[in-house]
Design a protein that fits this description.
Keywords: 4Fe-4S, Cytoplasm, Disulfide bond, DNA-binding, Iron, Iron-sulfur, Metal-binding, Transcription, Transcription regulation. The protein has 125 residues and is an all-alpha fold. 48% of the residues lie in helices and 0% in strands. The radius of gyration is 25 Å and the shape is globular. The relative contact order is 0.09.
């Protein structure tokens, strides 16, 4: 018999424990989340600094996966800017390009051998 306690989710720490090990932990969040009106060189500089911290972080993969899975729309997560995550989401949501679909569509299909009696129309194609 299943008890109510067994149906309850585990503690949040089971899912978010990786955040406790992030190199960003304890730093000013303004480095990872742009202030209103920040543009141009100031934003580029701040993002570059945040990405340097992310690059050395032991949980960068978990952070990036979390941001992509939960559609985090603001801030630097897993070394990716808001724009970079948007580009990845769009790319992953797009169907394969025509040439890629053609290649993928031919997998597992045996090609028929050509014969000497091909029609003129077949030879032109």
């Amino acid at each position: 018999m299943t008890t109510t306690v067994e149906l309850l989710p585990g503690p949040n720490a089971d899912f978010w424990d990786w955040q406790m090990h992030g190199d960003c932990r304890g730093l000013d969040s303004a480095m990872f989340f742009h202030p209103d009106g920040e543009r141009g060189p100031a934003r580029i500089r701040r993002e570059r600094q945040a990405k340097q911290i992310c690059a050395a972080c032991p949980v960068i993969d978990q952070c990036r996966s979390h941001a992509l899975a939960t559609d985090e729309t603001y801030g630097i997560w897993g070394g990716l800017t808001e724009h970079e995550r948007t580009v990845l989401r769009r790319r992953d949501a797009q169907p394969p390009r025509h040439a890629e679909a053609r290649r993928g569509g031919m997998q597992g299909i045996e090609r028929q051998p050509t014969t000497a009696r091909m029609s003129r129309a077949d030879r032109i194609r």
